[in-house]
Amino acid sequence: MNQKVIAIDGPSASGKGTVAARVASALGWAYLDSGALYRLTALYARQQGVAWDDEAALAQLAAALPVAFTDGAVLLDGQAVDEAIRGEDIGMGASAVAALPQVRSALLQRQRDFLTAQGLVADGRDMASVVFPQAALKVFLTASAEVRAQRRARQLGLALDGAAFAQILADIEKRDAADRSRTVAPLAPQADAHILDTSALDIDASVKKVLDWYRQI
Ligand SMILES: Nc1ncnc2c1ncn2[C@@H]1O[C@H](COP(=O)(O)OP(=O)(O)O)[C@@H](O)[C@H]1O
Ligand SMILES: Nc1ccn([C@H]2C[C@H](O)[C@@H](COP(=O)(O)OP(=O)(O)O)O2)c(=O)n1
């Protein structure tokens, strides 16, 4: 078991990034947003004119991503791309490239390299199953699709009803279905994961629950 790793997996907009970053900061540990690497691969491919289904070319790009995670920004080839990788079109691209085994292997070691002596909280889809199977604590963070769509809409400053909201909900459901049904590293709770349904739980309570579980180990 790796005492110094907490793996947080779950579907889109369940709060993984928010909760993982807050838990990392509470413990003084590093934080890995693994989805950012898949998003960066999708964006880099678009910039380089590589199609999101060209597995061999994508794996080469993923292996050589010129990325730097600085305190304030994510840099791709020296350019800040924080906003560019957050859109739902790049999210769909990330989900598409993430279904390709060669892309996943190209990013595997890069993710493990985020582990420092202090410890690491990592969020994604396969943190517990593939990247850190020895994690001390595995959390599967989830919430109903409706609640997750509301959180995403709020994040984007959109109304919680109407056509734009319906589109967000449809996108979330489509991407989750793709991530759950792929053959390589599908999104699913591990048998030894703690399930945390945050549909009726705020951020503070979610963070506290994860820290409580960790302290009980
Ligand atoms: N437990 C929670 N209760 C209410 N809002 C939350 C909760 N967890 C996260 N959020 C909000 O939901 C939005 C999506 O969270 P995020 O961490 O980006 O999710 P993910 O990384 O799973 O896509 C953010 O605006 C965040 O502040
Ligand atoms: N460890 C990971 C992380 C992300 N992915 C893929 C699948 C996801 O749909 C995309 C984007 O992930 P990301 O965590 O950034 O997306 P959300 O913020 O949850 O909407 O990348 C993956 O396959 N494995």
UniProtKB/TrEMBL annotation:
This enzyme's EC code(s): 2.7.4.25
Domain Cytidylate kinase: 6-215
GO annotation (BP), single: pyrimidine nucleotide metabolic process
Keyword Cell membrane belongs to the record: no
Subcellular location: Cytoplasm
UniProt superkingdom: Bacteria
Keyword DNA repair: no
GO CC term, one of those recorded: cytoplasm
Molecular function GO terms recorded: ATP binding; dCMP kinase activity
Binding residue positions for ATP: G10, P11, S12, A13, S14, G15, K16, G17, T18
EC top class, as a word: transferase
InterPro entries: Cytidylate_kin, Cytidylate_kinase_dom, P-loop_NTPase
Key words, A-Z: ATP-binding, Cytoplasm, Kinase, Nucleotide-binding, Transferase
Gene3D superfamilies: P-loop containing nucleotide triphosphate hydrolases (3.40.50.300)
Pfam families to which the protein is assigned, alphabetical: Cytidylate_kin
Reactions catalysed, as given in the entry: CMP + ATP = CDP + ADP; dCMP + ATP = dCDP + ADP
Family recorded in the similarity comment: Belongs to the cytidylate kinase family. Type 1 subfamily.
NCBIfam families per record: cmk
Protein name from the UniProt record: Cytidylate kinase
Gene this protein is translated from: cmk
